[in-house]
């Protein structure tokens, strides 16, 4: 058992070191100026505008290249002379363009683009195509100028005619701020194709863009840029990394870059998303497929910089033959907004599985994350501070698990107390495993020790830990939420940048260091039954491992774990202060307490 525990400890340390290397290689990188993305966006638009566009026919898709030359689509500038029509409500500003008769971008009025700035975050600001534009359909795509037929405060209608045979009418309605069965981030879209000729049209397949997701800010390396779709029962997730290819880890998992990843229908809904925001198309009738591509958005950054890339998706529909002078309609709801679980889980507005875009993990983790986020949101309605909400949610969890964690603490303390007897049994029966096991179980029975009691609390808390991790890294509510010295709970709490020899520039993140100190003190006050030197050395490295794990993640996770550790320390100190009156092997005289067993210091 000792060798097994030592081996597990070694694996954990190796994993921590791998996380450090991974974070340094792919983790957040601090750009030079604060407005790097918008400046690069202007440069990208200028470069693209300088290139002549082929009228009527879109450029051919890039051919698949060799692994050392990854394939990707490039962003496009707005078509020269395109007219933009704006519709507003209290949550969004939707910019429609007559180039493709589609949605150029959506600005979120309640989510700033950067800390301390008034400009809202704009989804699809840099893009391969306008959202809901036809893709790869000459005469209907982003190269086609649509006529603005009508406009009101809530809706807009565009119209185009192809070869005097097919009339395409596109009608969009922006939802009000409040209303039954709707959401202010939802845009209702209806595209009607009417056959103007005297002969039926041929069946055709058309594709609509669901938008381009870019890194949420200049520090985002895009690891959470994904598309996802549901067939009504199961969900399929495609990460941007799946298109990049690479050499893998030590040669394992190597793959070639891909120009496109195709998913088969039916498609009940499809989304393209970044860490905090998403565009979700929910058609009235399921689509037949989805394609995912990687997009080079920032030409100012080198091809090797992952911050330069976004991800885009197109959803395909099969249209049956339209009889002469008849029409056919593609309609659905298009949500463009934040990844807020309370909003997306409203089944009066969304499908019952659309909240899966929150990336909470499998069923167990998803269930735990939903409980935690719901509780944390309710607490926030009273405290108005997300940091305090995280603390109170953590304390609520600790009190909920208090009975079993107290049992774990008592078991650890009692197990440490019987270690001399345990060592004597091991020495006596070292050549007889059967008698050793029987004597060990008899010793446990004598002192009323349940060896499983030390593992059960950990097994129960692990799902909540991972649920907290998943929830805190993608909840839009935590974006730019301040707490103490941290300006953004969804990012590391960097207070300064240090320049160190050999290592170079290193951010100074306080909360992970504080967590390491708390873990070290917690280890000192917690009874340690193990006496093996190798195990004790591994235990001493645990605080360092926690620092490595947490250093480049959301500081909200450090707040949770630090509070969790502080509560455990107080709990253990209380348990250590009182006598263990539940051990039947103790001889306690009436009216006299047993002297407390002081934890052995390592």
Characterization of the model:
- The chain has 602 residues and is of the alpha+beta class.
- It has two domains: 31-72 and 82-359, Distorted Sandwich (Beta-galactosidase, Chain A, domain 5), CATH 2.70.98; 382-577, no CATH class.
- The chain is built from 13 helices and 20 strands.
- It has a nine-stranded antiparallel sheet.
- A hairpin with a 7-residue loop joins strand 4 (102-112) and strand 5 (120-123).
- Helix 6 (386-400) packs parallel to helix 13 (555-577).
- The chain starts with a helix and ends in a 25-residue tail after the last helix.
Helices and strands in order:
Elements: H1 2-26, H2 36-49, E1 73-74, E2 84-88, E3 92-97, E4 102-112, E5 120-123, E6 147-151, E7 155-162, E8 166-174, E9 186-195, E10 204-213, E11 226-230, E12 235-239, H3 241-244, E13 261-267, E14 269-273, E15 277-283, E16 287-296, E17 309-319, E18 327-338, H4 341-344, H5 363-383, H6 386-400, H7 402-417, H8 419-428, H9 433-446, H10 456-474, E19 494-500, E20 504-509, H11 510-525, H12 533-550, H13 555-577
Parallel strand pairs: 1-16
Antiparallel strand pairs: 2-3, 3-4, 4-5, 6-7, 7-8, 8-9, 9-18, 10-17, 11-12, 11-14, 13-16, 14-15, 15-18, 16-17, 19-20
